[in-house]
Specification:
The chain is α/β, with parallel strands linked by helices. It has five helices and six strands. The protein has a four-stranded parallel beta sheet, with helices on one face. A two-stranded antiparallel sheet has the order 3-4.
Length: about 150
């Protein structure tokens, strides 16, 4: 018997599926784990860790994503300009008011590999604050979330 382990090739994944997720009322971390797994391709039987086998994900209503506890005022996002005293701190409340898309992008980015592969997979994530998106031509399917995602 000749059993060989299947390893996906990048050229085999020309056609990718599109999924849409409505983030309204869904907990941020639970949404981000499902989206990150879909971007990586972990839902497919041909998943290979070192090849981008994932699909496109469109997230709408990013401004209505839910966070638990007191994260709205306690959670901070940090950025640094690399100059002395260049640390900038933004709370989740301010981030939601100014750039609600970045909340989900930041959460998903932390769940992807920190390499060129992770950056390539993150490009397939499209996040919009409102209920409308310009990807209707791709006819995205509804992405099924776990029943625990709305707790």
């Amino acid at each position: 018997m000749d059993r060989k382990t299947y390893s996906a090739k990048a050229a085999e994944f020309e056609q990718r599926n599109w999924y849409v997720v409505d983030a309204e009322g869904i907990t941020l971390g639970r949404l981000a784990t499902t989206v990150a797994a879909t971007l990586r391709g972990k839902h497919k039987p041909t998943y290979t860790p070192h090849v981008d086998t994932g699909d496109f994900v469109v997230v709408i209503n990013a401004d209505k994503v839910r966070v638990t506890g007191r994260k709205e005022v306690q959670k901070n996002y940090y950025s640094h300009s690399m100059y002395n005293g260049g640390l900038k701190t933004t709370s989740l409340k301010d981030m939601r008011a100014r750039h609600p898309e970045r909340i989900i992008e930041h959460a998903v980015r932390g769940m992807l590999p920190g390499s060129n592969l992770g950056r390539q997979q993150l490009k397939k994530l499209k996040v919009y604050a409102g209920p409308h998106h310009p990807h209707e031509a791709n006819s995205p399917a509804e992405l099924a979330l776990d029943d625990t995602a709305t707790r």
